[in-house]
Amino acid sequence: MDYLKMIWPTPFKVQEKDVVSLVIQLVIFLVLCAVGGILIGLLAGLPLVGFIFAILGGLLDIYGLVGIILAVLKFLGMVR
What we know:
Helix content is 72%, strand content 0%. It has helices spanning 2-7, 19-43, 50-76.
């Protein structure tokens, strides 16, 4: 669990049964994925390094998805 807290520190700031902290974390991850997706989408069109940016975009989306899942689980009290 400490390893998860090291990689995704913000979802563990969500308080159990506190809707405001959950919504704040969800907005942070959604904005992160949206802005990162737009930037990486533009950079993925480059001929020589486009595939690297495409991989980075996929990893960014996975990071955001796992962060959202951890925030919801912390909100529900399933993760300590």
